[in-house]
Amino acid sequence: MFDPSVFELSLEQQFEVCRIQKEAQDMSHEETMEMLLKITHLLMVKDNLIRDLTRQVL
User: What pTM, to 2 d.p., does this model score?
Assistant: First the structure.
């Protein structure tokens, strides 16, 4: 069973979220949408990598 604290962000990650939030506030709508699409793409790549690594281990 997973420890719920595993899903919490580290202090460094919390600072990074704050930094990105401040940066996004100064972006235009188009820049924000572009960043959202890039992040979505990277998260999908990450999911694929994790899925592939899990298959290799099992």
Answer: 0.71
**Longest Cα separation, the chain:** 45
Residue type at 57? V
List, for the chain, all residue ranges whose pLDDT scores fall below the cut of 70.
Answer: 1
Q: Give the list of residues 6+ apart from residue 27 with CB closer than 8 angstroms, or none.
A: 35
- Residues 6, 22: Cα–Cα separation, whole Å: 26
At residue 40, what is the residue type?
A: T
Q: Do 24 and 32 form a contact (C-beta atoms < 8 A)?
A: yes
Look at residue 28 and give its three-state secondary structure.
coil
